[in-house]
Design brief:
The complex is a heterotrimer of chains A (379), B (272) and C (324). With 379 residues, chain A is an alpha+beta fold. Chain A is built from eight helices and 20 strands. In chain A, helix 2 crosses helix 3. Chain A is elongated, with a radius of gyration of 25 Å. Chain B is an all-alpha fold. Chain B has a domain of 172 residues: MetI-like (MetI-like fold, Orthogonal Bundle), CATH 1.10.3720. Helix content of chain B is 79%, strand content 0%. Chain B is built from eleven helices and no strands. Chain B is globular and about 70 Å long. Helices cover 79% and strands 1% of the residues of chain C. Chain C has a two-stranded antiparallel ribbon with strand order 1-2. In chain C, a hairpin with a 6-residue loop joins strand 1 and strand 2. The chains are: A alpha+beta (379), B mainly alpha (272), C mainly alpha (324).
Chain lengths: 379, 272, 324
């Protein structure tokens, strides 16, 4: 069985036409004065899904989250949670909880009182609160910090208190606003996996807002890429990466090489693209683009091979000169300047310690790739 | 992030500001009253301003007050700035607790106590009460306010600016005058203005420490107010308010323009 | 030749070193001066006067200049000084405890100051809260509007209330004209007028510390409370108010301490019927010319205020720590 990317997903309600949507944004628009933060946006999220809203700062992703939490009301459109229209329901009556980017831990309360805060609002009996708080502290491994105040904790510990506080009420949906933004790189990577485990074990629906594509790729079942208040693409991480729907998405997620050109000849998905300067690219992924259409051919660096001689039998091989080399340990990145001046980025996994065909700066070199390695974009 | 500025918030601000400003506005309005009865409107007139300028006693008191204010504010600004530097820069020296106590306590000390104690000091050392003693007294209580204003600026001051200057070869004293002082200058200026208005304003301490020939304007106003409210005093008060208001508004406008200019420069620089 | 160059270089380096050592010494001296000048000034003009007040509070009134005895000077040599020292007595303090007038004045002053402080807090908190929640662009303007009256004369502002509160004053004219009352209210020369005067005059001192602690507060804390199921009013009492406590304490002390010894407001608005200790001290000094008794009054007032003043100083020090 073939699949995009290297994982097979068994949890995929979005492919099931009978699956009931859990959260629905229906043509939602949000304006602040004359600034449109969210523009006629529709989105569906399923129960138990780990859903990521990915975009640059100011793209409207946080506004979406805040509308779901109830801090903002949509200017137009509606938001449904489990079939219920959320309009007019204040944040303190919504069955969703949020983990704030700043954590928003109450500085005058101890860790356990922070975690118990939401439970007390529900009027839960004291023994039950104590039990739930103990359970949460265990979950985030902070048992011995129960009596501390937030300012006596490290950044990572604060993050875990914020997490425990927001899941303590067992909300239908947990909203996470840049949950790992304030952590350093190493801690962030560890915490990503902890969050995924937590989501699995609690069986909650997570909606996370992030500007960090790696974070979104690692954790999410599906990613919505947001730009200027609009959804550019909603897809699994592998689809977003391997089958971007537009130039914007291809360029936004990961590194990419793009060749502008025109379909020269096409039949049944495969085509030749005339990329100018005598470069012709043969691809199997042309979709149904007709001959003569202006297209962009996008190809990821790791799908391009660099060699000192033209590989025998290569369908696509272009000659150029090695312009820059970056050795990163696990891989090496080459910048090859083609004869028409365009610079192509290619990366090679250093699967072995010794390379047979080493390249140096200013060497003549060939970049080559298979006909199914890239995608043709018309948007 | 837009926070909700609810109707409740707006109402409380409007009512609060009405409470703060209404008495002052009424005072100003009735200074232009034709009638001698302060609270009955008898038509517009500026005659009280004219008679004010023929009141030699008031004019003399104004001149005394202005001189006391300028001299005491200037000395207090120097001393207060030094005290602020001491508080922020020298965290360990003998008697620091006592020192910070002596800086903060005068802020809340009832004026009758400060006035009485200073007077008794002047008598004890045999200093005749008059212009000098009022000025010394005003320096003492206003320098603490200057110290607090300058100190709050010094706390947020980026010490690495000084370190950079010294790293580039400027000795400490030079660093202070070329780097630190210009940066904290706005705070020093507002400290001076605060000291000046406090001095201009003071009745109690001046009453204790001043002597014949050094009657200040508040003392003069007070003695007339005790005899009854007159439109002439309203006129004097209006002029005083106008002077202060114009000073404050001009200063803050200048400040704002500098700020706007700076932001514009920054934007231009970023566009490159 | 190269040797000579090296020597010159070395010697010039030596002078440089000498210079910089001198500069360091100079800097250390200047640093000392920075501490010494304000320190000595405050010692001489703030602390020593209190010692003198205490000394005079133990003396007797005399018809002389200065009008008290003993003068405690060295005119008769050391032995004369000690002879004078023996004349000091606590008679003035005994006098203060025997005359109910003083006791009542102290108690009344403390009560009036306490009530006024609470009233100022009640009036000031909504204003400070409204300012802190105002759009960030107009906050500096609002702040300036709160400070501006403070720059105009305190005496003038108190004086303005006479015209408003007196029986034929503007407030009564308005209330009579609108038919709310049929008889003019007697407010001037009552404790009510003192409350109004104190709340009015000290309002900025309450609003500013409250505003600064409310404005510093992270609004996402309120959102977090709401998100966890807390309605707005409850969120105010559970989050906003506890977090503004440093501002509440600072504001209350800034109002309470000076209000206890307030003179101008009770004198102008309170009339002769009201009794406050600042006015008592003033009368004792200016009307009765009894310097020893007014000194004793001041000493006891200072003792009463010692604890609040120390609390105030601690609050200031804490705020300073937090700003760092």
């Amino acid at each position: 069985m073939k699949s995009l990317g290297s994982i097979r997903r068994d949890f995929a309600p979005w492919n099931d036409p009978n699956a009931k949507p859990y959260i629905q944004f229906d043509n939602v628009t949000k304006k602040f004065g004359d600034f449109t933060a969210v523009n006629n946006l529709s989105l569906t999220i399923f129960e138990r899904e780990f859903f990521a809203l990915l975009g640059a700062s100011g793209c409207g992703k946080s506004t979406l989250l805040r509308m779901l939490a109830g801090f903002e009301e949509p200017t137009a459109g509606r938001i449904l949670l489990d079939g219920q229209d959320l309009r007019g329901i204040p944040p303190y009556r919504r069955p969703v909880n949020m983990m704030f980017q700043s954590y928003a831990l109450f500085p005058h309360m101890t860790v356990e009182n922070n975690i118990a805060f939401g439970l007390k609002q529900d009027g839960m009996p004291k023994p039950e609160i104590a039990a739930r708080v103990a359970e949460m502290l265990k979950l985030v491994k902070l048992e011995q910090f129960a009596k501390r105040k937030p300012h006596q904790l490290s950044g990572g510990q604060r993050q875990r208190v914020a997490l425990a506080r927001s899941v303590a009420k067992r909300p239908k949906v947990l909203l996470l606003d840049e949950p790992l933004g304030a952590l350093d790189k190493k801690l962030r990577e560890e915490t990503q996996f902890e969050l995924m485990d937590l989501q699995q074990s609690l069986g909650l629906t997570f909606v996370v807002v992030t500007h960090d594509q790696e974070e979104a790729m690692t954790m999410a079942d599906r990613i919505a890429i947001i730009d200027k208040g609009e959804v550019m693409q909603v897809a699994t991480p592998a689809e977003v990466y391997e089958a971007p729907g537009s130039r914007f998405v291809a360029g936004f997620v990961g590194n990419v090489n793009m060749f502008e050109g025109r379909i020269a000849r096409g039949e049944a998905g495969s085509a030749s693209i005339d990329a100018g300067n005598g470069i012709t690219i043969r691809t199997d992924n042309a979709g149904n683009a007709a001959a003569g259409t202006a297209v962009t051919f996008a190809i990821r660096p790791e799908k391009i091979k660099v060699s000192s001689a033209k590989p025998a039998g290569a369908v696509n091989a272009i000659e150029g000169e090695v312009y820059d080399i970056a050795y990163l340990g696990d891989m090496t990145v080459y910048h090859v300047r083609l004869d028409d001046g365009q610079v192509v980025r290619a990366s090679t996994m250093n699967a072995a310690r010794i390379t047979e065909d080493p390249l140096s700066w200013n060497d003549r070199a060939w970049v080559s790739f298979r006909p199914d390695a890239g995608v043709v974009l018309t948007r | 992030m837009n926070t909700t500025w609810s109707r409740f918030n707006i109402t409380s601000i409007v009512l609060g500001f009405a409470f703060l400003y209404l008495p002052i506005v009424l005072l100003i309005v009735f200074s232009f009253n034709e009638s001698k009865l302060v609270t009955v409107w008898g038509g517009f007139s500026t005659k009280w301003y004219v008679s004010l300028f023929h009141n030699q006693g008031l004019m003399d008191a104004t001149w005394v007050t202005a001189r006391v204010g300028v001299i005491s504010a200037t000395v207090a600004t120097v001393l207060g700035t030094l005290a602020a530097l001491t508080l922020t820069r020298y965290t360990r020296f003998k008697g620091r607790m006592l020192f910070s106590g002596m800086v903060f306590a005068p802020l809340v000390m009832p004026e009758v106590i400060t006035g009485l104690s200073l007077l008794l000091l002047f008598v004890a050392v045999g200093l005749d009460r008059g212009f000098l003693t009022v000025t010394l007294a005003h320096i003492t209580f206003t320098m603490c306010f200057v110290a607090v204003v300058v100190q709050s600026r010094l706390i947020s001051f980026d010490r690495s600016l000084e370190e950079a200057a010294m790293d580039l070869g400027a000795p400490p004293v030079k660093t202070f005058f070329q780097i630190t002082l210009p940066v904290i200058m706005p705070a020093i200026i507002s400290g001076w203005m605060l000291a000046f208005t406090l001095s201009l304003d003071d009745l109690v301490i001046a009453s204790f420490t001043s002597g014949p020939g050094a009657t200040t304007l508040p003392m003069k106003i007070y003695s007339q107010v005790r005899l009854g409210v007159t439109p002439e005093i309203n006129a004097a008060c209006t002029i005083l308010i106008a002077v202060v208001a114009v000073g404050v508004i001009v200063a803050s406008l200048a400040n704002k323009r500098r700020e706007v200019q700076r932001q514009r420069d920054e934007r231009a620089a970023q566009r490159g | 030749m190269s040797n000579a160059a090296v020597t010159t270089a070395t010697s010039s380096r030596a002078t440089d070193a000498g210079k910089s050592a001198l500069a360091r010494l100079g800097a250390a001296f200047v640093g000392r001066l920075v501490i010494i000048i304000p320190y000595l000034w405050l010692l001489f003009f703030f602390l020593i006067p209190f010692v003198i007040v205490f000394k005079i509070s133990l003396s007797q009134t005399a018809i002389a200049m200065p009008p008290y005895t003993p003068a405690l000077d060295f005119r008769d040599g050391i032995s004369g000084f000690f002879a004078q020292l023996r004349q000091l007595s606590v008679d003035n303090y005994t006098w203060l405890t025997q005359d109910a007038l003083y006791f009542n004045a102290y108690v009344t002053s403390l009560i009036i100051a306490a009530i006024s402080t609470v009233l100022t807090l009640l009036v000031g908190y909504p204003i400070a809260y409204g300012m802190a929640r105002a759009p960030a662009t107009i906050r500096p303007t609002l702040l300036m509007l709160v400070i501006l009256p403070f720059w105009t004369s305190f005496l003038i502002r108190v004086y303005a209330w006479i015209g408003i509160l007196k029986p034929e004053g503007l407030l009564n004219q308005m209330l009579l004209a609108t038919g709310i009352i049929s008889q003019p209210l007697i407010i001037l020369n009552t404790y009510t007028a003192i409350f109004i005067g104190i709340v009015y005059s000290y309002l900025p001192f309450m609003v500013l510390p409250l505003y600064s602690s409310l404005e510093k507060m992270d609004y996402s804390l309120i959102e977090a409370a709401k998100d966890l199921g807390c309605p707005p009013t409850s969120a105010f009492w559970k989050i906003t108010f506890p977090l503004s406590l440093p501002g509440v304490i600072a504001g209350c002390l800034l109002v309470f301490i000076p209000a206890v010894g307030e003179f101008v407001i009770p004198d102008l608005l309170g009339g002769s019927q009201t009794l406050m200790i600042g006015k008592t001290l003033w009368n004792e000094f200016f009307a009765n010319r009894d310097w020893p008794v007014s000194s004793a009054v001041a000493v006891i007032l200072l003792l009463l205020l010692t604890v609040p003043i120390m609390l105030f100083q601690q609050a200031q020090a804490r705020a300073q720590e937090q700003d760092k």
